[in-house]
Design goal:
Blueprint (H helix, E strand, L loop, with lengths): L2 H8 L2 H12 L2 E2 H8 L3 H13 L3 E6 L2 E6 L1 H6 L1 H8 L5 H28 L13 H9 L6 E5 L5 H6 L5 E6 L2 H13 L5 E5 L12 E7 L8 H11 E12 L7 H5 L8 H10 L3 E10 L7 E8 L2
Parallel strand pairs: 4-5, 4-7, 5-6, 7-8
Antiparallel strand pairs: 1-3, 2-3, 8-10, 9-10
Helix pairs in contact: 3-7
Length: 308
C-alpha cells in the first residue's frame, strides 16, 4: 500500500471513525450501523474500500460478517498508528466510544443471561465438549498442592474434583447464578479451599502472579476477545506457572451460538497455538484429544503453555 493510498483512506472522517472503532473491537455491519447511525449501503461501501486496501480483516458467522483492523498493516505503517493514537477533538468520537461500550456491554449481558438461565440445569444436561475422556486428559496436567484459577468455571465441576488435593482454588465466572450455585455445592461438600468470585475472564479479579495454574475448561469460546482472556491468564500466573486450555475444535454447528451462548465456533489447533504463543507463553502444545460419537461430533482440543 502506498502512502498516498493511506492518506486517501484516512482523509474521510467516516472511514477514520471505522478504523478507530475496528482497532478496538471486532464489529458486525449492523453494529457499525448502530454506532455510526448510517445506512447499510454506506457502511458496506466504506468497508469495501478498507478491504481493498487490506486495512481490515473479515470473518463470517452464519449470515453475519464481522470486521476488525488488520494489525499487520497497522504495524507496517507508522502513519496509521499515528492516526489511531491521535486524540480526536471531533464531537462524534466521544459518541462513538459511548456507543461501542454499550454494544460490548450488551454482548456480555446476553452471554451472562444464557448462563443465568441454565445454571440450575448444568451437571444434568448435555454440554458440548464435556466428556470424562477429555477431562481425564485435563487432570493429567495438574500438579498437587498448588493454587489454581478456574477461569469461566461455571458451577466449578472440575474445581470440585481437584479441591481435595489443591492448596487453594479460585473459581471465576461472570454469572451471579453460577457463582451462587458453586458456593452452595462447595458448602454442601465441605470444600473450604474453594473460593468463588464473580468476574470476567477478560478482566480477572485476581492479583498479578497469584496462582500456579490457570485452567480454562470450555470457557475460551465464550470470550469476546480470546487473546485478552489468555493474556489475563498469563498476568495472574507466577513465573513458571502453567496454562491449560480445554476447548472445542473449530466446527460448523452454528446453532451452538443460540443453544449454548457460544461466541466462537471452537478454534483450529493452529489458531489456538498462535494465540497462546502470542501472549508470551513458552513450551506451547495444542492437540486434539477427544471426538464425540454423536452429531454434530464435537472434537475437544487441549492447549498448554508455561509462563517464562
Amino acid at each position: 500500500m502506498r502512502i498516498t493510498e493511506i492518506l486517501q483512506v484516512l482523509s474521510d472522517s467516516t472511514r477514520l471513525r471505522m478504523v478507530k472503532l475496528l482497532g478496538q473491537e471486532e464489529l458486525s455491519v449492523a453494529e457499525l450501523q448502530e454506532i455510526l447511525e448510517m445506512g447499510q449501503s454506506r457502511i458496506s461501501s466504506h468497508l469495501g474500500l478498507l478491504r481493498r486496501h487490506e486495512m481490515v480483516n473479515d470473518r463470517k458467522e452464519g449470515k453475519k460478517t464481522f470486521y476488525e483492523l488488520n494489525q499487520v498493516v497497522v504495524q507496517r505503517f507508522e502513519l496509521i498508528r499515528v492516526a489511531l493514537a491521535e486524540e480526536s477533538e471531533e464531537e462524534f468520537w466521544e459518541s462513538d466510544r459511548s456507543a461501542l461500550d454499550r454494544i460490548v456491554d450488551r454482548r456480555r449481558r446476553a452471554s451472562e443471561r444464557y448462563f443465568d438461565e441454565v445454571a440450575d440445569r448444568l451437571g444434568k444436561n448435555y454440554v458440548p465438549g464435556r466428556s470424562w475422556d477429555a477431562i481425564g486428559h485435563f487432570l493429567l496436567r495438574l500438579v498437587p498442592r498448588i493454587t489454581i484459577a478456574d477461569l469461566g468455571a461455571g458451577e466449578g465441576m472440575i474445581s470440585q474434583l481437584l479441591a481435595e488435593r489443591a492448596r487453594k482454588i479460585y473459581c471465576i465466572d461472570s454469572s451471579k447464578s453460577m457463582v451462587r450455585l458453586g458456593k452452595e455445592l462447595a458448602k454442601k461438600n465441605n470444600l473450604l479451599n474453594l473460593s468463588y468470585k464473580q468476574g470476567d475472564i477478560e478482566n480477572v479479579p485476581l492479583s498479578k502472579g497469584s496462582v500456579d495454574l490457570a485452567l480454562m475448561s470450555q470457557s475460551l469460546h465464550h470470550a469476546q476477545r480470546p487473546e485478552k482472556a489468555l493474556s489475563e491468564a498469563s498476568r495472574i500466573l507466577r513465573k513458571g506457572g502453567q496454562l491449560v486450555v480445554l476447548d472445542l475444535k473449530e466446527h460448523q454447528f452454528s446453532k451452538a451460538r443460540q443453544l449454548y451462548g457460544d461466541q466462537w465456533l471452537g478454534f483450529p489447533e493452529n489458531e489456538l497455538y498462535r494465540m497462546i504463543k502470542s501472549v508470551g507463553f513458552r513450551k506451547v502444545k495444542v492437540e486434539t484429544i477427544a471426538k464425540e460419537e454423536r452429531e454434530p461430533y464435537f472434537e475437544t482440543i487441549l492447549g498448554y503453555g508455561e509462563k517464562p
